[in-house]
Amino acid sequence: MNFMENCMKKSVLVLFVVMFVFLGVQFAFGQDANTPAAVGKAVAVPPIPDANQVIMVFDGKELTIGQLQYLAPKLDAETIKKAAEYWLDSQLLYEEAVKQGLGKDEKSKFLADMNSKKVFANAVVEKALNEIKIDDSQVKKYYDENKDTDQSLKEPMYLSFSHITVDSQEKAEEVLKKLNEGNDINVLAKEMSVANDASKGGRAAKYQQNTIESRYGKEFLDALLGASEGKVIGPIKNKDGKYEVAMHEGKREPKVKDFDKVSGQIKSKLENEAKGKTVEGLLKKLRENAKDRYVKKGALATDANSQ
């Protein structure tokens, strides 16, 4: 039996063992200290173990620290103990699955085959992704070419205003008349506004555009953006059906962030884009090379013909 067939056989049998899943969760999230340790030949663990050190032996099969690192890259004494017990319990459950003859139905065979191939497929993808390198010159080039258009590289615009919210158009017209007569909007807000911020004079300082739109509606935001500082806008019906009269009290334009503050962000963006293109290109190449080995049928054939 070759290596791949052996992996598939084990996957079929272990797939059916519900406790195996439970133990995996138990390992990942921690196990009660009172739970008895599994029986095995445990070896003392040094503070900084060597990857080649054998940590447990079961029926002549050795488990090393290096193998445990495939399960948990950052190992401490407690994690080593739990990971080793997880490995041992897996061996025991596999044996029990063999004895019970589990894993013979078609569904399990198919899923086990997929799972065994997935391990190697992930390794191929990981190898390709590890070859991706984004250097500082690429990051700086993106910054220089996109700092004026990529909003993620800018500090947002902030708008400040004071507003009065009332229940009707007529009431809003009354507010507007009083403002035109020279009344202070913050004083009027305390007297006439039904908004939650009335007691604070209706002041809204340094609000981002998306916040204004979500609270008051797009029509209100557009009017505010079109106004100059000190200008009164309204009456405008807000998104809740009430009416707004407001005074523009200042705007801070979007500001490009310093390169040092966004270089890490840009590098992650470029790496993610490169990874997507790498995987897409790899799969496209593999499918092209294998186009004479597979045939789309049924619904897939219909879909292929429509493309």
Count of individual helical segments: 12
For the record, the CATH class of the largest domain is Alpha Beta
Q: How many beta-strand elements? A: 9
CATH topology of the largest domain: Chitinase A, domain 3
What is the helix content?
40-55%
Residue share in β-strands: 5-15%
How is the largest sheet built, in terms of strand order? 6-5-8-7
- Rough shape? elongated
Query: Would you tell me the overall average pLDDT?
Result: 85
C-alpha end-to-end distance: 42 Å
User: H/E series, N to C?
Assistant: HHEEEHHHHEEHHEHHEEEHH
Structural class: alpha+beta
Number of separate structural domains: 3
The CATH architecture name of the largest domain reads: Roll
- Rounded to an integer, what's the Rg over CA atoms? 33 Å
Largest sheet, described in full?
4 strands, antiparallel
